[in-house]
Amino acid sequence: MIQTAEFIRSCTAAEQFPRERIPEIAFVGRSNVGKSSAINALANRHGLAKVGKVPGKTQTINFFKVAINDPVVPFFYLVDLPGYGYAKVPKSVKERWRTMIEEYFSTRELLKGVVVLLDLRANQSLDARLLQWLATWSLPIVLVATKADKIGRSQRPALLRRARETVDIGASAFLWFSARTHEGKRELLKTIKNVLIRPA
Ligand SMILES: Nc1nc2c(ncn2[C@@H]2O[C@H](COP(=O)(O)OP(=O)(O)OP(=O)(O)O)[C@@H](O)[C@H]2O)c(=O)[nH]1
Ligand SMILES: [Mg+2]
Questions:
Q1: What does pTM read for this prediction?
Q2: Residues with CB under 6 A from ligand 1
Q3: Contact by Cβ (8 Å): 32, 89
Q4: The CATH number of the domain where 164 resides is what?
Q5: Which domain holds residue 193?
Q6: Which residue numbers in the chain have pLDDT < 70?
């Protein structure tokens, strides 16, 4: 369980990224998929990360410092990034996000893993492209099929089979999750912890 969670900083460029040397986990995925909501659910803090109905809510890179009861990794950052795809923002803003996100991945030495959120009810072609790009960083990937509260258990195997046609799940961890019901929360935290303690 996450014991405390604290908003640290909202950044638009690398020189603003926090300097404290603790490990971190990034949350990425399509706009509106539920990245910010997942962080709030994990931290048990409504409103910690800003959530929106309109895609494109998170426009900066936001660092949240969390504490867990673990002697090896007592603190780490959860990092909330802007989404890709259908954000309701001008093209120039999306271009800026792209630069900012590339800067993020190329400078964060203690980035230990990436949580990629997927909505398996939607088309996964953009997610497949993101995963291809992410592969260049050789980081552990945790695939999280979110909004699971909207997907009946009987529908899940077929949706997962369909997603596999587009997305290479390969060696990544995969789990179902809901920020609404907190389904999968324990498993996601456990998976994140495993990623954090993995030797580099
Ligand atoms: N039913 C359901 N709705 C969810 C879940 N997670 C998020 N939502 C809703 O989806 C919408 C988008 O959630 P956000 O957490 O802001 O999504 P995001 O990926 O951070 O979006 P951007 O910041 O725009 O990229 C909000 O209306 C949330 O309430 C979930 O697990 N279940
Ligand atoms: Mg967001």
A1: 0.97
A2: 29, 31-37, 51-53, 55-58, 82-83, 87, 146-147, 149-150, 178-180
A3: no
A4: 3.40.50.300
A5: 2-197
A6: 200
